[in-house]
Automatic annotation (TrEMBL):
Superkingdom of origin organism: Bacteria
Name of the molecule in the record: Enoyl-CoA hydratase domain-containing protein 3, mitochondrial
Lineage start: Bacteria, Pseudomonadati, Pseudomonadota, Alphaproteobacteria, Rhodobacterales
GO BP: fatty acid metabolic process
Membrane spanning residue stretches: none
Classification via SUPFAM superfamilies: ClpP/crotonase
Keywords, alphabetical: Fatty acid metabolism, Lipid metabolism, Transit peptide
InterPro entries (UniProt xref): ClpP/crotonase-like_dom_sf (IPR029045), Enoyl-CoA_hydra/iso (IPR001753), Enoyl-CoA_hydra_C (IPR014748), Mitochondrial_ECH-domain (IPR052377)
Source organism: Roseibaca calidilacus
Length: 262
């Protein structure tokens, strides 16, 4: 339905989620946060879904939180304190959900990705953006430092570049976002959806069990020191080697044939 806040299509193992609130630049309203969290949680348990694409309808990917909705929260007797704390906790939970999903998540970005919208891009495992897309953690321009977006941003790009964006509120284009490592690459607007799907199809064609193991280990090792990371990933690779389909994949490579994965 066109009036659905989140449109979902699952084809050939790829789930494409489209935030569908274009008149509000796909702002992360309470309803949008709930819809994304519910759908991603459901997809996490679906063994037939191997990759997830997250996109936005209309001229923007996501413009961050719904400021009008946030301002309405001030009407509460506590001035909005409980609501604001709950809002940022729910948003933080969504951002933390994405890295722990078993499937890789690819952001398909166009127009603008600002504040919590930029946070959403940074939280995804990969991102492809249309040329001309603008990115910013620009809350400081209205007196609200983007402290929660800062968490994802500083885990994607260098500290000095991140701090400059956070304190100046300036925007960067897709080319600069690529240089900084916020996105994988920029492509022409008219090829954005096709390029993103091609990346998703490439990943979906791999052994799903191996990709799931690898994604989990990718984030786990990033939190460890060097020795711990090697010890942990060594155990992960040993477990991976014991999979029936990994054995089949190696044999197929050696015998120059396609693997017969279950």
């Amino acid at each position: 339905m066109e009036d659905e806040i989140l449109k979902v299509d699952v084809t050939d193992g790829i789930a494409r989620l489209v935030m569908n609130r274009p008149a509000k630049l796909n702002a992360l309203s309470d309803a949008m946060l709930a819809a994304l969290t519910e759908r991603l949680t459901t997809l996490a348990a679906d063994p037939d879904v191997r990759v997830i694409i997250l996109a936005g309808a209309g001229k923007a990917f996501c413009a961050g939180h719904d400021l009008k909705e946030m301002q309405a929260g001030r009407a509460a007797p506590d001035g909005g304190a409980a609501y604001f704390n709950d809002l940022f906790a729910r948003c933080g939970a969504l951002m933390q959900l994405i890295p722990v999903l078993p499937q890789p998540v690819i952001a398909e970005v166009q127009g603008i990705a600002t504040a919590a919208g930029c946070q959403l891009v940074a939280s995804c495992d990969m991102a492809i953006a249309a040329e001309g897309t603008r990115f910013g953690v620009n809350g400081v321009n209205i007196g609200l430092f983007c402290s929660t977006p800062m968490v994802a941003l500083t885990r994607n790009i260098g500290r000095k570049a991140a701090f400059e964006l956070l304190t100046t509120g300036q925007f960067i284009d897709a080319a600069r976002a690529t240089e900084l490592g916020l996105i994988n690459r920029a492509v022409p607007q008219d090829t954005l959806e096709a390029e993103t799907r091609h990346l998703a199809q490439t990943v979906a064609a791999k052994l799903s069990a191996a990709v799931k193991i690898g994604k989990r280990a990718f984030y786990e090792q990033a939190q460890m020191d060097l020795a711990q990371a090697y010890a942990h990933t060594g155990r992960v690779m040993a477990d991976n080697m014991l999979l029936r389909d990994t054995n089949e994949g190696i044999n197929a490579f050696l015998e120059k044939r396609r693997p017969d994965w279950a």
